[in-house]
Amino acid sequence: MTTDLYGEKLHPGNLGFCPRRLARITPWLEDYVNERKLPFAAVVVMRRGEVAYSSRYGNRDIEKQLPVLDDGLYRIYSMSKLITTVAALSLFESGSLMLDDPITKYLPNFADQKVYSNGNFENMELIDLISPITIHQLMNHTSGFTYGAFDPGPVGRALRKAKIDFGKTNEKLEDLVQRLSTTPLCFQPGSSWRYGVSTDVLGRIIEVITGQDLERVLRERIFDPLKMTDTSFSVPDDKVSKFCALYTRTTENPLKKLEDAESSRFRKPVIMNSGGGGLVSSMKDYVRFVEMIRRLGELDGERILGRKTVNFMMRNHLPGDMASMGQKTFSEMPMTGVGFGLGGAVLLDPVKSEIIGSEGEFTWGGVASTAFWIDPMEDISVVFMTQLIPSSSYPIRRELRVLVYQALTD
Question: pTM (2 decimals)?
Answer without folding.
Answer: 0.96
